[in-house]
Amino acid sequence: MQINKHTWCIIMAGGLGSRFWPISRTDNPKQFIDVMGVGQSMLQLTFHRFEKICPRQNIVIVTGDQYVDSVREQIPSLLPYQVLAEPLRRNTAPCVAYAAAIISQIDPEATLIVSPSDHAIFHEEKFIADIQQAVQTVALRQWIITLGAQPIRPDTSYGYIQFNEHPSLPRALNLHKVVTFTEKPPIEMARQFIASGEFYWNSGIFVWSLAVLRKAYETYLPAIAETFFSLGFGTSWEDLERVYSQCESISIDNGIMEKADNVHVLTASFGWSDVETWDSLYDVSHRDKDGNAIVSGNVFTYDTHNTLVVMPNDNSKTLVLEGLDGYIVAASDDTLMICRRKNEELVFRFSSDVELKKLIDNK
Amino acid sequence: MQINKHTWCIIMAGGLGSRFWPISRTDNPKQFIDVMGVGQSMLQLTFHRFEKICPRQNIVIVTGDQYVDSVREQIPSLLPYQVLAEPLRRNTAPCVAYAAAIISQIDPEATLIVSPSDHAIFHEEKFIADIQQAVQTVALRQWIITLGAQPIRPDTSYGYIQFNEHPSLPRALNLHKVVTFTEKPPIEMARQFIASGEFYWNSGIFVWSLAVLRKAYETYLPAIAETFFSLGFGTSWEDLERVYSQCESISIDNGIMEKADNVHVLTASFGWSDVETWDSLYDVSHRDKDGNAIVSGNVFTYDTHNTLVVMPNDNSKTLVLEGLDGYIVAASDDTLMICRRKNEELVFRFSSDVELKKLIDNK
After folding, report:
1. Cβ contact (<8 Å) for A322 and B298?
2. Taking CB atoms and an 8 Å limit, are B323 and A340 in contact across chains?
3. A133: helix, coil or strand?
4. For residue B202, which of B250, B252, B167, B259 has the smallest C-alpha distance?
5. Assembly ipTM
6. For the whole model, what pTM was predicted?
């Protein structure tokens, strides 16, 4: 299929990825790391996936000011407007508004795909086909399309989209009218959602035309619309700082998707994970006969089971594991963590303890 | 007490330390490593201990040819005769004969202390006093004195010395006639040895005059005596290689101590360990309230017990451990091993597997 020159992609790359400590740090968050052990960072994987969907120069990456160098290093030769720096973190609604404002100056007829930078897609061909179907659909209908991923377990960390069969569309199109969004439901509710068959996971990937996007912002987030859609190439950094410091911090989901009545879900089948936790990485990784997911590293295991290993992808380092069952072993260049998988939420405590000691040592 | 200018020390520093993999390797064995986490290698600790007993220039280190640079780097400004290179490993009897031959050219009246380079001594003042007592004793009697360490567990990896009360010496001198040497007894025998009160561990530290040493070699190891005592400063490397390649590989214990009838044991109380295994290092290390021995490294433990940690002594590396009980965590610059303490004999398999893979990868 031919690539449409009006198709644009906004990649949101401003996350902190703090759950992947010690590999992901504030100064080098998950999107810049080869979390999957495939030789490319999550951002590189995302960018190269979208290069098959829209022209390279139509991919715009929005990130924190401190990450601009990382983006340009990982994706070389980007044009100036392709890397947009945010002076402050204000969640996804301002981020997308900023990118859309810049794109509107170049291509007022743009169709926009909005995507996180750090999620995993397992069947790229299906993904491309689904996105293309969504792009074609929003050319015909004034819809916001969100891509839903089939839930495979009652995960309480995801957002759930409830949908109805759409009366006027063939079922084969997998397009449905969204009824509700529910963020991070309790486990019992998540179980009911899955049993009902009416819910899909919210992948955080949206497709809409620029016109529909502007209308949605103007209707549901008028303050953001007013300030952000006046931004352009000529906006000074000081003005951008002022706009960000004064604007509301709100997600697209809360700000628009939960309110708009033209949101449709494309129930996709490309295999998706936000890979937000060590355990979700374990889930999506190849496991050997002992249940070990050796994502990266030169690793020797003996009587070791159900263990996730993520080492710096540098074969000069060797790891030997004997007698572990159900652990995470993860290392950055300077820190190695061994933690039971069931206790992975402790990484916040670990990172805070380690940082505190560094502060004290440096005093 | 004044240091006697005829007191010499031979430090045997040719071991491979293979049980301490991955920290100790053939190219950097245990004696050159800060195994105890005190800021000095085992060899440096040993050398500096003997500097308090004999003149610095009377300390001679015998090592493998490939380790001469390591010795000179760790103990700077040694005179040429103070580092003797062995072309081949032939156990301790040839090693000591070589050093004694060189020393005899400088000081025919020498008293020789023979010591391993990689054992731990816990009460240095007592050690110095015991060695000095032995030195004084062999100035008066034609004895070979071996220093015995009080056994504190039925360790099957040690040599045991059986002794009788000496009829002609006050008990306070702690000097006894040796009856038998038993290397590495079965566990039941070791238990009986300890229960009897007649056995001490063989520390591998001997004290004897040069004359007594020569006589012992001439009597029990005449072939070694003949070739080695003709060696001197002028011996070429080729001649040394020939001598070593033709000589028997035999320990002082097997070759002399088990046969000579003038061996006496000084039952010492300085606290000793050969620190030959990870578990013996755990035994001799300070343990925190959870039973963890954090020998070195910037380590954070959570719900972790009875675990030995030895990391490179470089505070830029951090280790976080959660939920381990009874493990060894040991790292060199390029390899980290996690292994249950009860399975530490597997290190031979680990090292061989890792080396094999390196060979295959480099093909």
Report:
1. no
2. yes
3. helix
4. B252
5. 0.84
6. 0.85
